[in-house]
Give the backbone structure.
Amino acid sequence: MKRTTLSLAIASTLALAPAAALAEESPYLAADGSWITLSGKVTSTTADSFKLDYGEGLVTVEMDDWDWFEESGEVLPGDEVTVYGEVDDDTFESAKIEANSVYVDNLGTYFYASDADEESVNDLDIAPTIDLGQIVLTGTVTGVDGSEFTIDSGDQKMTVDTASMPYDPMDDEGYQKIEKGDQVTVTGDMETDTLEAAELMADSVVTLDDDSSS
């Protein structure tokens, strides 16, 4: 998959430009074409969609033309996900959500629609912000060494140590494997040793993955 640089604002709350706002109510009460964020559990999948239990009911999330979903969608049932997308409320059908991005909790990865998809984040005038707390850095991985990697956020370069994380994001065992060139968001605490340069002790590392073919 091709990685592309994604501009994400980090803030304490979700905020969008005045031209668009996130719907806070049920997707079945939201206006057609409005943007909404829902979190919940995947209950089942089809070839191009999945059912999301968002706590107050089920809603269909459409994943048309998502290469990643075509390859991995069948493994999602039971997973906790967060979906950001556009409400598609056809008069003759139940409301659905056209997914723009999907965060899969156990994969530690945000997936974004491909540039060719009509719901692509790159076609929007705004993008949702993400509240991850603590110290947050988003940038490109420039090098990997054991349990550490370096990240270039554009304004600075920082060493990130993943040794204290509950899993190893550098190994081959899970879906996530941090590699040079990846776009990531790191959350953690600064640690300064008098004998070493300051580094970020990671609590979480989220891979930002554009759903485009290589």
About this structure: Helices lie at 67-72.
